[in-house]
Amino acid sequence: MEASPGTKWRPLLLLLLAVIPGTFLTGSRHTCPSRCRCLSQDKVVFCNGRNLTAVPGRIPPDSELLDLSQNVLRTLQQGMFSRLQALKELDLSYNALSNIEPGAFNSLKRLMTLRLTGNKLKMVPSGVFTGLPSLAVLDISENEIVLFQDHSFKDLSSLRKLEAGDNHLIFVSSQAFSGLQSLRQLTLEKCNLTGVPTEALSHLRHLVELRLKVLSIGSVPDHSFQKLHRLKVLEIHRWPSLTALRPHSLAGLNLTALSITRCSLREVPYKAIHHLVHLRFLDLSHNPISVLRGRKLAELSRLQEFHLTGGRLATVQAHAFHGLVHFRVLNLSGNGLRTLEEGAFHSVGNLEVLRLDGNPLACDCRLLWIIRRQRRLNFEARQPVCATNSTGEGKVFRKFSDILPGHITCRKPTIEKETPPQRLSVEEGGRAMLTCKGDGDPPPTISWVSPHNVSLDASRKGRLAVLPNGTLRIHHAFPQDGGAYLCVARNAAGNDTMWAHLRVFSNFSVRVNASALNASSAALPFLLDVGTLAGILAIGIVPFLCSVAICFVFISLWNKGRGTAKHHIINAVPRYSRGYKAVTNRHKRVANKPR
Ligand SMILES: *[C@@H]1O[C@H](CO)[C@@H](O)[C@H](O)[C@H]1NC(C)=O
Ligand SMILES: *[C@@H]1O[C@H](CO)[C@@H](O)[C@H](O)[C@H]1NC(C)=O
Ligand SMILES: *[C@@H]1O[C@H](CO)[C@@H](O)[C@H](O)[C@H]1NC(C)=O
Ligand SMILES: *[C@@H]1O[C@H](CO)[C@@H](O)[C@H](O)[C@H]1NC(C)=O
Ligand SMILES: *[C@@H]1O[C@H](CO)[C@@H](O)[C@H](O)[C@H]1NC(C)=O
Ligand SMILES: *[C@@H]1O[C@H](CO)[C@@H](O)[C@H](O)[C@H]1NC(C)=O
Ligand SMILES: *[C@@H]1O[C@H](CO)[C@@H](O)[C@H](O)[C@H]1NC(C)=O
Ligand SMILES: *[C@@H]1O[C@H](CO)[C@@H](O)[C@H](O)[C@H]1NC(C)=O
Ligand SMILES: *[C@@H]1O[C@H](CO)[C@@H](O)[C@H](O)[C@H]1NC(C)=O
Ligand SMILES: *[C@@H]1O[C@H](CO)[C@@H](O)[C@H](O)[C@H]1NC(C)=O
Ligand SMILES: *[C@@H]1O[C@H](CO)[C@@H](O)[C@H](O)[C@H]1NC(C)=O
């Protein structure tokens, strides 16, 4: 009996419970604003592109997505969405919003995505984004925002992604990003910023991806990103005035991906990146970098991908990728490379993707390793093409797939070197032959570089000629031909060099040196002759005089009979003096000769 009131009301209650949702649903179906399209089952309302100047009334309050993009809304008043508490995504992009009152988004407790891109916002007053505890994505790009004031985003504690590109930003206040404790991704693009907002960024302790694009910033000061310990991805794109990175500009970072593209870097910023030992992806495309240097990336042992497309790369030095044991992707399309040698890699075993298209490749033995591996390498359907052969002559547009490995062989030249190095002396007017034998596959061509830095090769005929066997022949040598000659043996695989020295004695010095030699060798026997004569004279003077005396006696005795002995004695003495005179004259001549 006491329970009767409950039982009496129960049917009515059940009826109400059954009817209310029905009326609500039919009601919502009926209350869809006239210029909108409502998908009530998906709780989606499309009012985009309707020339709306105000937010329409009668939007179903259970809507989760409201698209008001491409209208002409100018302002948003405080609390104007407060009925729509179920809203998860609100799209207000491409309107004419220039003013948003603080509290406009109040009570949108479930809102996760707010798009305000393409409006006319000039500032983000503190308080505009209050009451959005769930907001994860905010897009305010393509507005006219000039500065981010302190605490502009302070209540967005769940915000993970902030798109702020394409504004007129000239200044980011030091506390602008405070409170964005969950922010993972930030993009600043096409702004008039002239420096990296280091202080503001330092509040983003959980930032993982930072994109700074189309900026006229010319330098990145040391420690610009010092406190972004969690940052993994940094993209710097289109900073035309950035020509170099300072050695400590990226200090404090522990990145896995770094892109510095379409800037004006002339060198790989080896010093700035060497500490990024967890880096896996590096993109330096569209920078005027001309050389990848040997062993400079060795510390980045986890690097898997390197991209430098559309640059001015002409040389990849040996060991350029030394130490990169996990290297998988190399993208060098659209550069000026004539070759890429296997010696540039730590090992080509892991290489999967190789893009070399758009380079004037010379197909010779240096590229043999690619031709051999072409089935295992992914060219992304862009086969490298031979533009020239090893001599650089002619245009031979041949696909790698048309080249058989057997056609190409390779061994770097080596020159048989003499120890000590070749030294040759010739007289002026004489002929010199400097030899140089190079070995290699294909056989190297030999050329010589003269002491006067003239390159001499087999094509040259004349006084100085390189013979087919590599010998440099110098006809009719001049003293000025003397000096150090460099022999260079070169083939497609490389070169080897050797020095040889030539000395050409001028006729003058030949005369002086030779005559000095002749003089000494002539003077020596002469001195011996004089000494001997003197000795003979000294020792033999008594027997001589005796024999003369005996002769005299003998002759006078004989003369007593004939009377002609005097004549003979006179004849004998001059014969001796004549001989002595001849010797002294010769001595005089030799002594006078040097001048
Ligand atoms: C919006 O207005 C423009 C002119 O102001 C008109 O050309 C266009 O058709 C209108 N669009 C809609 C959907 O009414
Ligand atoms: C930003 O730079 C662009 C082009 O350089 C210029 O048109 C614009 O007026 C600048 N904006 C500000 C706020 O300085
Ligand atoms: C750097 O990042 C890697 C993962 O990307 C992580 O394993 C490593 O611990 C980090 N090092 C430091 C010092 O934070
Ligand atoms: C290599 O670079 C080209 C041109 O920039 C690009 O289209 C291609 O996707 C790149 N390949 C890889 C694997 O990133
Ligand atoms: C390179 O090509 C030119 C022109 O096609 C040809 O004359 C020359 O012999 C070739 N050189 C080699 C080494 O194949
Ligand atoms: C030698 O000549 C070459 C050009 O043939 C030039 O590039 C080089 O600088 C010269 N070297 C010296 C030491 O003069
Ligand atoms: C090189 O060739 C020249 C002439 O053909 C010859 O006189 C010379 O002995 C050769 N030199 C060597 C090292 O073979
Ligand atoms: C020899 O080759 C090296 C590179 O391997 C190069 O730097 C050098 O200039 C070459 N020398 C000559 C004379 O060609
Ligand atoms: C130097 O002497 C050589 C003979 O030794 C001779 O053939 C040559 O003509 C001389 N040269 C000059 C410049 O006098
Ligand atoms: C003459 O010969 C000597 C060594 O015998 C040498 O040192 C000197 O330079 C030569 N003179 C000239 C002018 O070459
Ligand atoms: C030096 O002597 C040799 C023979 O001993 C001779 O052939 C040569 O012409 C001489 N040289 C000079 C400069 O007198």
From TrEMBL:
Signal peptide span: 1-25
Protein name according to UniProt: Leucine rich repeat and Ig domain containing 4
UniProtKB keywords: Disulfide bond, Glycoprotein, Immunoglobulin domain, Leucine-rich repeat, Membrane, Repeat, Signal, Transmembrane, Transmembrane helix
One GO cellular component term of this record is:
plasma membrane
Q: Does the keyword Cytoplasm apply?
A: no
Please give the start and end residues of each transmembrane region: 533-558
Q: Where does the record say this protein resides? A: Membrane
Q: Residues in domain Ig-like?
A: 413-503
One Pfam family cited in the UniProt record for this chain: LRR_8
User: Which species expresses this protein natively?
Assistant: Podarcis muralis
Gene from which this protein is expressed: LINGO4
Q: Does the keyword Disulfide bond apply?
A: yes
Indicate how the chain sits in the lipid bilayer. Answer: Single-pass type I membrane protein
